[in-house]
Design a protein that fits this description.
By secondary structure, the protein is of the alpha+beta class. Helices cover 44% and strands 12% of the residues. The chain has 13 helices and 11 strands. It is globular.
Length: 382
């Protein structure tokens, strides 16, 4: 669309960040569950314009504080290491008044530079690609090692607190505001049956068996940028949920999406299976990058990260369906229920392949010459 065809409100918002005379086109990017995202095309560079979903992120300034602190920290490290910070981390565009957020008609907007020559994917196309995704997730952790979690705002409290999520899930079932509980009994019972192990990660954090780290908390495949020409990892994007958390959730969430051979909302559950070669490829890329910072107690619980986060996401999709689809954007009436059923099937596949997954983790630890203390009874010999 040319300048005259642009929706008036979008143009007004874009003008707060960018030179309106140079805007060629604004087009919606129809991906992501939460925010509305637009690509602003300009002659010299493209930009990402996003409307922040304040129902989900009720502290948008706290969220932008986290993003700014983390990206500036990464940027300084990249410069020190002689890497290009314009392609290896997000770069926030401030408004003409020097602000990170523009409020227009009570809606909150932000703008970032688009990394030209980059691409995201919804489905993994090769082991080599998923190895690069693993490297990106691992490098994010490595670069932020030493960044103190107290600097960050807790923008979504209890975000990956699975026991807390379960308590809220029970509340929603009791209320049944939308009269949907009766059609979800099998799914609800599935979640109930696994609630006993929901605290495996959170209890270790509380007891300081594993450390709190700065975590992305949403490491799905579409949040990893790859170079369009070389296929090499560039960086993680969509840093809205950057907070303190466990490295185990970042590892597990990336596997949850990338190692499944079906998309997250596939309704033919026979197609929802795990590719163990992809599990190995991602794990190798990830563990290669975090070798200097990972603790044995974290290595021992990598499988739990994969298993528990998938249970949690299944529960969250089901929770949202029972509550009336308030959190995740949907494209059809029972979209969140379909997503929940998809993730429940994926949990079953993870459980069926538990020994194989743990053996693969053990195998990769050996190949990367991790110290013997990283091998425990929880990781069978390869």
């Amino acid at each position: 669309m040319d300048n005259k065809e642009m929706p008036h409100d979008l143009r007004k918002v874009a003008e707060e960040f960018l030179n309106s005379q140079k805007i060629v086109e604004i087009k919606e990017i129809e991906s992501g569950h939460i925010n509305k995202t637009y690509l602003v095309v300009m002659p010299e560079c493209n930009y990402i314009l996003q409307e922040i979903n304040t129902h989900v992120f009720n502290s948008p300034f706290g969220m932008m504080h986290n993003i700014k602190e983390v990206t500036e920290y990464i940027r300084k490290k990249l410069i020190y290491e002689g890497k290009d910070p314009n392609r290896a981390t997000l770069n926030i565009v401030t408004s003409r008044l020097g602000q990170d957020i523009v409020i227009y008609k009570n809606r909150y907007w932000r703008c970032m530079q688009y990394i030209n020559g980059s691409k995201t994917y919804e489905i993994i196309e090769s082991k080599e690609m998923f190895y690069e995704v693993g490297k990106a997730v691992g490098e994010f952790q490595f670069l932020l090692n030493g960044f103190h979690t107290r600097i960050l705002d807790d923008t979504i409290r209890h975000f990956h607190d699975t026991p807390y999520r379960y308590e809220k899930f029970l509340d929603i079932i009791k209320l049944d505001r939308c009269d949907r509980v009766k059609e979800c009994q099998e799914e609800i019972e599935f979640i109930h049956a696994r609630s006993a192990f929901f605290s495996r990660i959170t209890s270790k954090l509380e007891k300081k068996i594993i450390p709190y780290r700065v975590t992305h908390n949403d490491t799905k495949l579409s949040n990893v940028l790859l170079d369009e020409k070389t296929g090499k990892a560039l960086c993680l994007i969509d840093l809205d949920t950057v907070m303190k958390g466990s490295i185990l959730y970042d590892y597990g969430d990336a596997l949850r999406i990338g190692a499944s051979i079906a998309v997250e909302d596939e309704v033919d559950l026979e197609k929802v299976k795990i590719d163990l070669e992809l599990v190995e490829a991602f794990t190798k890329g990830f563990l290669n990058e975090v070798k200097e910072i990972l603790l044995p107690s974290e290595a021992e619980a990598l499988y739990d990260g994969y298993h528990i986060i998938t249970c949690e996401i299944a529960m969250r999709f089901l929770h949202d369906y029972l509550e009336g689809d308030l959190y995740f954007r949907i494209n059809r009436k029972k979209h969140n229920l379909e997503r929940a059923r998809n993730q429940i099937k994926l949990v079953q596949e993870i459980e069926k392949n538990e020994k194989e997954i743990k053996a693969l983790i053990n195998k990769v630890l050996k190949e990367l010459n991790y110290d013997e203390k990283f091998f425990s009874s929880n990781l069978p010999k390869a």
